[in-house]
Input
Amino acid sequence: MTKRTDILIIGGGMAGLTCALEIPEEYEVTILSKIGLPTGSTYLAQGGLAAVTSREDSFEQHLRDTQKAGAGMVDETVAREIITMGPDLVNTLSSWGIRLEGANGDGGGMEGGHSFRRVLHYFDQTGRFISEHLADECRKRNNITIIEGAFAINLITASREALSLLQKGCDRCLGAYVLIKEDVVTFLARETVLATGGAGKTYRYTSNQDSSTGDGIAMAFRAGLPVRNMEFYQFHPTCLFHPDKRNFLITEALRGEGARLINKDGKRFMEYYDPEQMELAPRDIVARAIDSEMKNYGTDHMLLDATHLSKTFLEEHFPEVTSGVASVGIEPWKDPIPIVPAAHYCVGGVVAATDGATEMTGLRVIGEAASTGFHGANRLGSNSLLEAGVMGMLCARSLGNGPASRIEALEVRGWSFGRAEPLEESVLVDHSWASLRSVMWDYVGIVKTDKRLRRALRLLDVLAEEVEEDYWTLLPTVEQLELRNLTTVARVIVRSALKRRESVGLHYLMDCPHTSHIKTNTVLKINM
Ligand code: FAD
Ligand code: SIN
Output
């Protein structure tokens, strides 16, 4: 079956939905999401959205904080553009009913690395508030169709599927093959926008939802696009540690209100690592400090002490955290919270401009799946909702400049199932998932060594061979396709980490502890 639309948006988080809502209504927009909306990392965001809204704050100061956190690798032009678009995004969100605390210049939250209380929020449920409103607003629009349970498998490109269309020296994206139930539908579009989020599920412990499997990054990489700086995977320092509960984020905003990191002797250990900024140092520093203390003590967690705050304050300002930890019997006004760092944010991604434009005509990449250069070597907290929203707006506004022409006449090959058979032993996929995530956690974590990275690559190469074999011989299932994407992303992360011969920002390589004075990007392409 073939479906046609003007603009195909793959992903229904902050980036995809903001983009859809900003596209002029004469365009037919189709949003695909592999799981029901509201969804994605957006839904889970707690801290908020960083934007300059107070007269006492300034774009220059926000820029300096972003550059400092990004360890000197931030693209200044890109950062300036995104930061100065912050107030436009805040007003646009407000026009859709999303009014955040701090939007009028006071009441913003504080997070590590920020020199001003500029984190606009809705209690500690910012992501849920934003994504529910965005999804509701999209459902009201006549030009937007949302298809949930639609899993994009591969991009359709002129060079592979419609050779006659291939323009000289320039490939073109024509849409995507999409798994809906057991069928694979061919979606054709004038423009395809990947807004598929990050890849936290590459690691055993992650703050992300199960859907964060790096699908868009893997799809773009397979289609020949350059992927940049994937060695910079951000670990959030404070996720709940509990043997039976999945990693649950304890927002940095709690540290912004004075919560302290302590070891099991009750000692505040950040003074050994960053005596000036202490718990509000950038995340790479705090996560490495926790990792180092855990190794020194031979324990699997540290503690976050918020007991100086009252029950009323915590319940009122941090309902998400308070109810989350209460579900495992912790009363944060009485007990320190056991925490562990967990994979949180993919700083690298598909090389894209701020409006999502990529090397390939007809393909945009926005939000966490993209690498614009905004975050440098480490993302400043709450800068990603800002980036995702601004990219969504810029992408929509630039798409709206073109003619609303459909690609009615185009014909491409349909998906071929060949002689594929159903997967009979799901243990094969389950085991590979578990080993991939363990390899990444054990060998490609917060602190890396060449030896561990090389070992990881060898193991992942073997896994990739098996996964490819399954891809070509088995009927497609979501689990198997996600595993394939995770394998692609994991190998790119390891290869990028091996390429960077220095330690900078989120990339700490014990064999090369120095920081190079020449700033370089790690760029990988499929045949490199
Ligand atoms: P997402 O919101 O992750 O959305 C991805 C979408 O793509 C989903 O709809 C998913 O279903 C869809 N999708 C993926 N693959 C496919 C496929 N193959 N086919 C079809 N659909 C697909 N950032 C901040 O700035 N402030 C915060 O306070 C903050 N808190 C966070 C808290 C947590 C726990 C986490 C995990 C992240 C947090 N972040 C925060 C980061 C931020 O939430 C994300 O970077 C941002 O929301 C990403 O938005 P996105 O639209 O790019 O992707
Ligand atoms: C948090 O609330 O600590 C997460 C903020 C972010 O990841 O930007």
Observations:
- Residues 427-517 form a domain with the Methane Monooxygenase Hydroxylase; Chain G, domain 1 fold (CATH 1.20.58.100).
